[in-house]
Design goal:
The chain has 36 helices and 34 strands. It is an alpha/beta fold. It is elongated. The structure holds phosphoenolpyruvate and magnesium ion (MG).
């Protein structure tokens, strides 16, 4: 006969912590605490296996289960000395859900079960507290009515509210016993009218129906939704724990409370708890009364306080983690009702983990696995104050919700263009740039802003990628926002927001709020550094940064980057002193004038690279040759419009033919460069092949810079990277052209410098023919932004139009531009690595798409044997910890061996 029911009580339990899957979190820890000799009210747990059998049998309890419940109940009655349904001294129980992971508030609970018209009188006489007894009964009818009989709480609560109004009292405890007795009768009438039967009086029947209702609550709407969001499998099911009630509302020597063994906000080692005298747990949760500081308990009942503190300490040592406990004191006796690992802030997570290692409670390995990498990243950025934000949202100030593209919170005045952002920031004002979308020429304005919002675009759109790189909070694809640039207003949520009004943005949730929400500063501490140093000890994957300037490079180093995995050289082309030259280069009517323009760019590029090489002294730097289509540099829509208008004016007035001819030429060039699908157009190495002088100039600038700094004693390791390769021919030709120029510079300068030439793998075809590509390419870097775009066929810039609906309908588990799609894109990565290394076993392979700073993607990169991941400087702490966790998990799975150290 299968064992479905496990008892605990009288200092002994049939279960323990290791039976979490069978007994649920609550059930197994109550058993564990009982075995530890900690005072826990006795009870029993019905297993998740019983739940599974019940669901398999069309909601019929499995054979033998109810008999086992009967025996467990008899044992419980024996342990407590009272009997269910006894009209003199009735046993009352709670019936609670408990899945293997905590799903707070998602499933049902019934308290005070066992009360009926007879036992309520017994309870009143026995406790000498009539008010208490009737209060328990009316609470029981409400909960039972709601959970078991499907009658909405409000149907009961409205009578309580009306009663309080009639009596002219504010709080529940002011309602006297006689009134509660009458109210209970009203509640029973409500039940009778709803179910056409009397409120169930038979306690055994009450219990069976309550067990059934808790089983069924696994499929309740909120539980299903919670599981979907948190990826909890539907077949885990819930256990049911039936436990004898203890009462915190029996007078001044009773009470109830919750506590953490350390401060969940800071991680500080001190008992952090709240207590409410003469109350039930429900009152605390429902906010009916404001709990007092735990010192109040120390004053009222010093011995109980000491006992509680000792138990809290014992539980923490036993579970080797910060605990969140619930306790009740019934007439001077302490009971623990629950213990579990406490939820904590990001700062507390790191502090508790590091402190527990220092206190020799856990090892570094365990500490590293305890901290969520995403939480860690939150320490490095400012965040909106959650309470203040909630208050603003509740006050109806939420304007829009977009895709959360770069973490952190920002507050500032709305501006609509980059120049205005720069101007205001110069005067010390904080601004938030709101645009339909951004383009490279907005970069200076983005830099000057506290945060960025765009109405269009996905997570790898320009705004998102640049903001992540700058460490600025950013929301993209906020399609509820309509920007009217000319009028300097935007519309959202039925409001008109003007330039200068203050908004707050939350880059973690995608919320745009019309309010100056308070925010907190980054909280990096020595502890975080120590923690990350442990991560470095355990990880095998290298961690590099995507950085375009010497300043970004220096910051990346501070965050722990071991090199640069991607310099996007085009970002340097947009500086105001260069853009005119870039345009001259593009507009050049012939090769000679084009070469002349290109040559003018060389010194600028060389200086950029010198700065980056110096900042990264001793570490490798991967520099990508020009990638975006040239039209991006020519004219933004506003400039284009102005040119058209100017030409029309000149036409009408019939003046200045020279200016008109120049405009015509410019407009013709812009039109000629216009593309229907620029991301699939004339870009990447295609550009290098059709305009070889551009790549030649860039390679020369890289090598001259490398030789210059090498002569000054800087250790430099340039890796020249070709973008968007898709065929062997492209690879070969670009490789040979690159080598020719690079070797020539080495001869000319005679400096001791080596370099390599490799390619990005961004086109699916390149992954498939990686063996042939690797014949020339000396390294690979997976550009998973483009690879995702081309594998799914989703435009990076337009994906936000349908993605939210796809996510909501469950058609995609995640945004594939944020979390690497291991099944499809990942398969191409696997193939690319395997085929590339077939030809070059020591091929250096990295990733430089946005996925390089996302935990599950980093774990994937570890598994498939990449050499390094490269991500924005601000994501480096995430990548370092994720890489360590990936290795530790793999080691746990295969018990592989000792750390690197
Ligand atoms: C990529 O495609 O993943 C990449 C890093 O290049 P970019 O984002 O500049 O296209
Ligand atoms: Mg790319």
């Amino acid at each position: 006969m299968t064992k479905y029911v496990y008892s605990f009580g009288g200092g002994k339990a049939e279960g323990s912590s290791v039976m979490r899957n069978l007994l649920g979190g609550k059930g197994c820890e109550l058993a564990e605490m009982t075995n530890l000799g900690i005072p826990v009210p006795p009870g029993f747990t019905i297993t998740t296996q019983a739940w599974a059998a019940y669901n398999r049998n069309q909601r019929t309890f499995p054979d033998g289960m109810l008999e086992q419940v009967t025996s467990a109940l008899e044992k419980l009655e024996h342990d407590t000395g009272v009997v269910l349904g006894d009209p003199k001294r009735p046993l009352l129980v709670s019936v609670r859900s408990g899945a293997r992971v905590s799903m707070p508030g998602m499933m049902e609970t019934v308290l005070n079960l066992g009360l009926n018209d007879a036992t309520v009188e017994g309870l009143a006489a026995w406790t000498g507290n009539e008010r208490f007894a009737w209060d328990c009964y009316r609470r029981f009818i409400t909960m039972y009515g709601d959970v078991v009989l499907g009658i909405r709480r409000e149907a009961f609560d409205e009578h309580l509210t009306a009663l309080k109004t009639r009596l002219g009292v504010k709080s529940d405890p002011e309602v006297p016993a006689a009134e509660l007795r009458k109210l209970t009768q009203t509640y029973k009438d409500v039940v009778a009218s709803r179910i056409n039967a009397a409120f169930p009086q038979e306690p055994r029947q009450q219990l069976e129906l309550a067990i059934r209702a808790v089983f069924d609550s696994w499929y309740g709407k909120k539980a299903v939704e919670y599981r979907r969001i948190n990826n909890i499998p539907a077949d885990w099911g819930t256990a049911v724990t039936v436990m004898s009630m203890v009462f915190g509302n029996l007078g001044e020597t009773s009470g109830t409370g919750v506590g953490f063994t350390r401060d969940p906000r800071t991680g500080e080692r001190r008992f952090y708890a709240e207590f409410l005298a003469n109350a039930q747990g429900e009152d605390v949760v429902a906010g009916i009364r404001t709990p007092e500081h735990i010192d109040d308990l120390a004053r009222r009942m010093p011995e109980i306080y000491d006992e509680l503190l000792a138990i809290a300490g014992r539980l923490e040592r036993h579970y080797k983690d910060m605990q969140d406990i619930e306790f009740t004191i019934q007439e001077g006796k302490l009971y623990l009702l629950q213990t579990r690992a406490g939820k904590r802030s990001a700062a507390a997570a790191v502090k508790v983990a590091v402190d527990l290692v220092h206190e020799s409670v856990i090892d570094q390995h365990t500490a590293l696995l305890r901290v969520n990498p995403r939480d860690l990243a939150r320490l490095f950025v400012p965040l909106l104050d959650p309470q203040d934000k909630q208050a603003a949202v509740s006050a109806g100030r939420l304007l829009a919700r977009g895709l959360a593209a770069a973490p952190g919170g920002a507050v500032g005045q709305v501006v609509f263009d980059a120049d205005r952002a720069v101007e205001l920031a110069k005067n010390g004002q904080r601004v938030i740039l709101v645009r339909p979308e951004t383009s490279p020429e907005d970069v200076a304005g983005m830099y000057a802003s506290e945060g960025i919002v765009t109405a269009r675009g996905g997570r790898t759109s320009h705004a998102a990628v640049v903001a992540v790189g700058m460490g600025k909070p950013c929301i993209v694809g906020a399609s509820d926002i309509v920007v009217h640039e000319e009028r300097r207003v935007f519309e959202a949520g039925g409001r008109l927001v003007r330039e200068g009004e203050v908004i707050a943005i939350d880059g973690e949730t995608g919320e745009v709020i019309l309010d100056a929400v308070k925010h907190t500063e980054p909280q990096v501490s020595g502890l975080t550094e120590e923690f990350l140093a442990w991560a470095d000890r355990y990880r095998k994957l290298g961690v590099r940064a995507n950085a375009d300037t010497p300043e970004d490079a220096a910051r990346a180093r501070e965050f722990g980057a071991e090199g640069i995995g991607l310099v996007r050289t085009e970002h340097m082309f947009f500086a105001s002193d260069r853009l005119p030259i870039v345009r001259e280069m593009i507009m050049a009517p012939d090769t000679v004038s084009r070469r002349a323009a290109v040559q003018k760019l060389l010194p600028f590029q060389r200086d950029d690279f010198i700065g980056i090489f110096r900042a990264m002294d001793g570490l490798p730097v991967t520099i990508r040759l020009l990638d975006p289509p040239l039209h991006e540099f020519l004219a933004n829509p506003k400039e284009y419009r102005e040119m058209i208008e100017e030409r029309a004016r000149l036409d009408a007035l019939n003046i200045n033919p020279a200016r008109k001819a120049a405009l015509d030429e410019k407009l013709a060039k812009i039109d000629a460069l216009r593309e229907a699908n620029p991301m699939l157009g004339h870009r990447g190495c295609r550009l290098g092949i059709t305009s070889p002088e551009i790549y030649a100039m860039q390679v020369r600038a890289i090598m001259e810079a490398a030789c210059t700094v090498a002569e000054q004693g800087v250790k430099v390791e340039p890796e020249i990277m070709i973008p968007l390769t898709g065929t062997v021919g492209e690879m070969k030709l670009t490789y040979e052209n690159t080598k020719k120029v690079a070797d020539a510079v080495l001869v000319e300068m005679g400096a001791p410098c080596t370099y390599t030439v490799g390619t990005m793998i961004e086109v699916p075809r390149a992954a498939l023919i990686a063996d042939k590509i690797a014949q020339d390419a000396e390294f690979f870097s997976f550009g998973t932004n483009d690879l995702t775009q081309m594998t799914f066929g989703y435009s990076r810039d337009d994906v936000a139009k349908f993605l939210p609906e796809y996510l909501q309908k469950g058609l995609l588990p995640h945004d594939p531009f944020s979390v690497l799609d291991q099944e499809g894109v990942g398969e191409l990565v696997r193939i690319g690595i395997e085929r590339g290394r077939r030809v070059r076993p020591d091929l250096k392979i990295g990733i430089c798409g946005e996925h390089g700073g996302e935990p599950s993607s980093v774990e994937f990169c570890h598994k498939v044997g990449m050499t390094y991941v490269s991500c924005s400087p601000f994501m480096i702490p995430i990548a370092r910890l994720s890489a360590a966790q990936a290795r530790l998990r793999a080691r746990e799975a295969s018990a592989e061996g000792a750390p690197n150290a």
